[in-house]
Amino acid sequence: MDIILLGPPGAGKGTQAARLQQNRGMIQLSTGDMLREAVAKGTPVGVKAKAVMEAGELVSDAIVSALIGERLDSASDGAIFDGFPRTQHQAEALEMLLADRDRNLAHVIELVVDEEALVDRITGRFSCAQCGANYHDRFHRPKVDGTCDVCGSHEFKRRPDDNEATVRTRMAEYRAKTAPILPFYEEKGLVRRIDGMASVDDVAAAIDSILDS
Ligand code: ADP
Ligand code: ADP
Ligand code: ZN
C-alpha cells in the first residue's frame, strides 16, 4: 500500500512515517532526509540544494522527483511519501512513477494543524545524531535526559532551517505551492483528513484506522 502524508512543516509527517515504518514494514521515503543526506555527502544534488533548503524554499521538481524515482523500488511493499509531492508537477511525476510500476496511491492523509503551534514544534525539534530518532524539547523528550531512547547515543543535532524566520518561509511555500495540490487528490477520492494537533498517539491511532479500513 502506497500512501502520502501531507501537511505543513512540523505537522508530524516524519514522526508518523517512522512509526509506520517500524510497525508495518512500509518504507518511509522522505525527500527532506534524502536531500539532507546529499548535502552532508556533498554530492552534486547536495551542492545545488543546500542554499535553497537553508532559505526555506523548494528544491527543483526535477531533483526531488529523480530522488523518489531512485528509491521507489526499494519500497515495493508500500511507500510512505513524507514531504513529497510538494507541487503539482511533483504530484504528476509521482503518478507516472507509480503507473510505470503498476502501483497506485491508497490514501493521501492530510494532517490538519494550527500554524502558530507549528513554530513551537519546529523550533523545539531535535534528533539523534546517531540513528535519527526525533525528539522535541517539550513534547517528546528522551526518557533519560541526554540519552537517545532508541540507540543510547548522547549526541543530538538540530536542523539549520529549524529557526523561526525560515519556518515562516517554509509555511508560505506550503500554502502557495503544496496546499493547492489537495484538489487534485480530492478529485480522485483519496484525501483523508485527520487532526494533527492531537497527541502523537492519537494521530497514530487515526492513521491506523484509515490504513485498516
Ligand atoms: P514534519 O516531518 O511534518 O516536519 P515532525 O514529525 O518532525 O514534523 O514533527 C515536528 C516536531 O513536533 C518534532 O519535534 C516532533 O517530536 C513534534 N511532534 C510531532 N507530532 C507531534 C504531536 N502530535 N504533538 C506534539 N508534538 C509533535
Ligand atoms: P519538514 O519536515 O519541515 O516538512 P522537510 O525535511 O520535508 O521539511 O524538507 C526540508 C527542506 O528540503 C524543504 O524546506 C525544502 O527546501 C527541501 N525539500 C524537501 N522535500 C522537497 C520537495 N518534495 N520539493 C522541494 N523541496 C523539498
Ligand atoms: Zn539514537
Q: Tell me the strand order in the biggest sheet.
A: 2-3-1-4-8
Q: Please report the distance between the alpha carbons of the first and last residues.
A: 12 Å
Q: Report the sheet with the most strands, covering strand number, pairing sense and barrel closure.
A: 5 strands, parallel
Q: How many beta-strand elements?
A: 8
Low-confidence stretches: none
Radius of gyration, whole Å = 16 Å
Q: Helices and strands: which structural class? A: alpha/beta
Q: Please state roughly what percent of the residues sit in beta strands, choosing from under 5%, 5-15%, 15-25%, 25-35%, 35-45% or over 45%.
A: 15-25%
Q: Enumerate how many helices there are, as a single number.
A: 9
Average pLDDT, to the nearest integer?
A: 96
The set of bound ligands, ions and cofactors reads: adenosine-5'-diphosphate, zinc ion
Shape: globular
| Residue share in helix | 40-55%
SSE string = EHEHHHEHEHEEEHHEH
Give the SSE map.
Blueprint: E1 2-6, H1 13-24, E2 27-30, H2 31-41, H3 44-55, H4 61-71, E3 79-82, H5 88-99, E4 105-112, H6 115-123, E5 125-128, E6 134-136, E7 156-157, H7 164-178, H8 182-187, E8 191-195, H9 200-211
Parallel strand pairs: 1-3, 1-4, 2-3, 4-8
Antiparallel strand pairs: 5-6, 5-7
